[in-house]
């Protein structure tokens, strides 16, 4: 009996910090945000319930265009990160020797320890009109006048891929690491060539890692703020910028909250669709325990 | 080696991997190197080596260690990161025991809830916490004429905002370690007559300590470099990333920002190294 009481007491004691954290800092703020998003200002300090903020979003093309643009560019970034990152992860997990493997993996993690701001700053110094790439090309005689590589979609996409690719490589390396080399050899012995082995054996095996990497990368990209603004300039039209604008510049909290919720709903919907398409669940990928 | 492809393929593969690492390093090198260029603009041509951007005490080349606003930012970042790191390691350790050792209903659901903060966009976390805090503060002021200053944008809100998602990271790190723990070691200690508290103090916690330290360092670094969540919650005490961003937008890029970047990169690299060293498994006897 005593033993059971102790167990119960320790469960309560351990559950309390968890509950306080999740409830006060995650659940309650989001409920509050939802509450604010469904009220309309009808006069000074007068509000009434209504979906006006959401309707406003759908009737104003610039708003939903920005969201669609953010979503599709994020999907593109995710696909690029997967395409570019998969060979690197495979190299680290399967081809590199034991000694280089650890070093390469650590090198992949280096940008993770450096602030977003510094990474974007570095790209600005490389890409701008007076930047390193432009002046080197001039010096080499390839071009005559300085070229501006910044402030276009390509720069934004490249910067975003750079920022998030680590979150693709890390889960891929850990899944591929757990794969028995004998499976790949068996594929070859049974007469498969490289692409077949890749398609029929390696990719299906790595699927949980791929999906988990894609989810994290997509969420991070869609929610990023600094990289699109600094590399895309004033016209990057990223949706988080729109949210910031509503909150800070226009001081319209109701509509900002609605936008925040729409971003959350939109990204969750995309992730949900991705999980359904790939036949995975949140438990088998990101929340793998 | 899993596959034995032809050498031409392997060579081009190696070149691709090398190019990738050049891509990874490029912006960091660019951000770091202009800290040592003797020019007022962070751009080529190279004007010669200098340490002015760190130590010079006069305008126009005011070094970072004499720039009062940057130093204040550094100080606030340090304070915020220390609090976030302590808090999130504490809650992360509790979470580890909760999810590894305890049985309770709807555990899978709560586990997903625990991971969730990591995938919520940082901007949204910042906004939602700001909204809730401001509403409570406004409500308290109107109804009770109480002035709840700590709920206004400032250090406390920044700490709470960063804590809200960094705790997920620390929990995951500590959970992974606790899962490797062999519970028969605890049982042996119980059989030898040790009390619960003593077992926790002398056996379980020492085993967990490397993961706790590593989690603390990761939390410290993530807090230090965070921008998105902090942006909405910051008051007058701006941490370093916000100060730098302000400077970048208002003054434009100056080499003193490169000096700060270099300083931060070295600092992070050292801390990351420490976190790897403490986590490295010593041979168990």
Plain-language structure description:
The complex is a heterodimer of chains A (289) and B (285). With 289 residues, chain A is mainly α. Chain A has one domain: MetI-like fold, CATH 1.10.3720. Chain A has a two-stranded antiparallel sheet with strand order 1-2. In chain A, a hairpin with a 2-residue loop joins β1 and β2. In chain A, α8 crosses α9 and α9 runs antiparallel to α12. The radius of gyration of chain A is 24 Å and the shape is globular. Chain A starts with a helix and ends in an 11-residue tail after the last helix. The relative contact order of chain A is 0.12. The mean pLDDT of chain A is 83. With 285 residues, chain B is mainly alpha-helical. In chain B, α3 packs antiparallel against α8, α3 crosses α10 and α7 runs antiparallel to α8. Chain B has a domain of 184 residues: MetI-like fold (Orthogonal Bundle), CATH 1.10.3720.10. The mean pLDDT of chain B is 83. Chain B is globular and about 70 Å long. Chain B has eleven helices and no strands. The chains are: A mainly alpha (289), B mainly alpha (285). Chains A and B meet through α1, α3, α4, α5 and α6 of A and α1, α3, α4, α5 and α6 of B.
Can you lay out the helices and strands and say which pair or pack?
The complex is a heterodimer of chains A (289) and B (285).
Chain A: H1 2-37, E1 39-43, E2 46-49, H2 52-59, H3 61-95, H4 98-109, H5 116-127, H6 132-140, H7 153-177, H8 181-189, H9 194-222, H10 226-232, H11 239-249, H12 253-278
Antiparallel strand pairs in A: 1-2
Helix pairs in contact in A: 1-12, 2-12, 3-7, 3-9, 5-10, 7-9, 7-10, 8-9, 9-12, 11-12
Chain B: H1 7-33, H2 52-55, H3 68-101, H4 107-115, H5 122-144, H6 155-179, H7 183-191, H8 196-225, H9 228-233, H10 240-250, H11 255-279
Helix pairs in contact in B: 1-11, 3-6, 3-8, 3-10, 5-6, 6-8, 7-8, 8-11
């Amino acid at each position: 009996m005593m033993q059971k009481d102790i167990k119960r007491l320790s469960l309560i004691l351990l559950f309390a910090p968890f509950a306080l954290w999740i409830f006060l800092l995650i659940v309650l703020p989001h409920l509050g945000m939802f509450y604010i998003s469904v009220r309309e200002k009808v006069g000074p300090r007068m509000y009434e319930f209504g979906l006006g903020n959401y309707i406003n979003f759908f009737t104003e093309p610039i708003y939903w265009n920005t969201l669609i643009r953010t979503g599709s560019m994020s999907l593109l970034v995710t696909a690029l990160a997967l395409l570019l990152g998969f060979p690197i992860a495979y190299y680290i997990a399967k081809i590199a020797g034991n000694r280089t493997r650890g070093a390469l993996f650590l090198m992949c993690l280096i940008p993770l320890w450096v602030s977003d701001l510094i990474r974007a700053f570095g790209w600005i110094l490389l890409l701008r009109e007076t930047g390193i790439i432009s002046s080197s090309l001039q010096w080499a005689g390839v071009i005559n006048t300085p070229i501006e590589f910044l402030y276009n979609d390509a720069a934004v996409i490249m910067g975003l891929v750079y920022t998030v690719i680590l979150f693709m490589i890390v889960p891929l390396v850990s899944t591929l690491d757990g794969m028995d080399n004998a499976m790949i050899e068996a594929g070859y012995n049974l007469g498969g060539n490289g692409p077949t082995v890749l398609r029929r054996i390696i990719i299906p095996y790595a699927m949980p890692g791929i999906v988990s990497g894609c989810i994290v990368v997509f969420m991070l990209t869609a929610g990023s703020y600094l990289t699109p603004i600094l590399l895309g300039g004033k016209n990057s039209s990223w949706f988080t910028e729109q949210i910031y604008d509503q909150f800070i510049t226009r001081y319209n909290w109701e509509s900002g909250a609605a936008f925040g919720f729409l971003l959350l709903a939109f990204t969750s919907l995309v992730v949900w669709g991705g999980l359904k398409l790939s036949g995975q669940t949140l438990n088998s990928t990101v929340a793998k325990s | 080696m899993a596959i034995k492809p032809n050498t031409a393929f392997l060579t081009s593969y190696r070149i691709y991997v090398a190019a990738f690492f050049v891509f990874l390093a490029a912006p960091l090198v660019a951000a770091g190197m202009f800290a040592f260029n003797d020019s007022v603009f962070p751009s080529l041509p190279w004007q010669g080596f200098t340490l002015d951007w760190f130590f010079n005490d006069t305008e126009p080349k005011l070094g970072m260690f004499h720039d009062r606003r940057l130093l204040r930012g550094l100080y606030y970042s340090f304070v915020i990161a220390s609090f976030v790191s302590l808090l999130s390691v504490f809650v992360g350790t509790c979470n580890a025991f909760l999810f590894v050792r305890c049985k309770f209903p709807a555990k899978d659901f709560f586990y997903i809830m625990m991971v969730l903060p990591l995938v919520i966009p940082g901007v949204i976390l910042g906004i939602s916490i700001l909204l809730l805090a401001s509403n409570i503060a406004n409500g308290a002021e109107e109804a009770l004429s109480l002035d709840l200053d700590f709920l206004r944008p400032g250090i406390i809100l920044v700490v709470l905002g960063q804590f809200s998602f960094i705790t997920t990271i620390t929990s995951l790190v500590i959970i992974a370690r606790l899962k490797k723990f062999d519970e028969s070691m605890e049982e042996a200690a119980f059989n030898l007559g040790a009390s619960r508290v003593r077992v926790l103090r002398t056996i379980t916690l020492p085993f967990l300590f490397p993961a706790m330290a590593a989690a603390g360092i990761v939390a410290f670094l993530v807090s230090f470099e965070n921008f998105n969540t902090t942006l909405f919650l910051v008051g007058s005490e701006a941490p370093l990333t916000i100060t730098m961003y302000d400077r970048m937008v208002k003054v434009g890029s100056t080499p003193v920002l490169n000096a700060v970047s270099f300083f931060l990169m070295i600092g992070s690299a050292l801390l990351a190294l420490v976190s790897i060293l403490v986590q490295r498994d010593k041979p168990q006897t």
